[in-house]
From TrEMBL:
Domain Phosphoinositide-specific phospholipase C EF-hand-like: 33-107
Native species: Dipteronia dyeriana
InterPro entries, alphabetized: EF-hand-dom_pair, PI-PLC_fam, PLC_EF-hand-like
Highest taxon listed in the record's lineage: Eukaryota
Name the UniProt record assigns to this protein: Phosphoinositide-specific phospholipase C EF-hand-like domain-containing protein
Source lineage: Eukaryota, Viridiplantae, Streptophyta, Embryophyta, Tracheophyta
Alphabetized GO MF terms: phosphatidylinositol-4,5-bisphosphate phospholipase C activity
Biological process according to GO: phosphatidylinositol-mediated signaling; release of sequestered calcium ion into cytosol
GO cellular component: plasma membrane
């Protein structure tokens, strides 16, 4: 008989007729450059404010001029996605939130391939 049980929310235990073991998903660490950017734009802090995110999006991420309201909206979307309670208590991003935002295809989609066709 096969059984599964969550093990520390990071993997699962599996036992059966022939196999017994503990399997975990490999965790991928964020790139060092991302940590450096976070430290730079938070000025060594542990949370990124809407103003700091606005600067990052404008200067590094190539979004041109981003308003403070747009940065606040990004933070709100991230917090709604990953922290259902925190969205009521804080208005800034942790490093993990920042990492999730940058690698979220829904909140931060990749630049699409677009070909400009000229009729001339």
């Amino acid at each position: 008989m096969k059984t599964r049980a969550l093990d520390n929310m990071r993997g699962f235990s599996f036992s059966g007729c022939f196999i017994k073991g503990n399997f975990r998903a490999a965790e991928v660490a964020p790139p060092a450059e991302m940590e450096e950017m976070f430290e730079k734009y938070t000025e060594g802090g542990t949370h990124m404010t809407a103003e700091q995110l606005r600067r990052f999006l404008s200067e590094v991420h190539g979004h041109g001029s981003v308003s403070l309201a747009e940065a606040e909206q990004v933070i709100e979307q991230v917090l709604q996605r990953w922290h259902h309670i925190a969205k009521f208590t804080r208005k800034n991003l942790t490093f993990d939130d920042f990492h999730h935002y940058l690698f979220s295809p829904d909140l931060n989609p990749p630049i699409g391939n677009q070909v400009l066709v000229s009729d001339t």
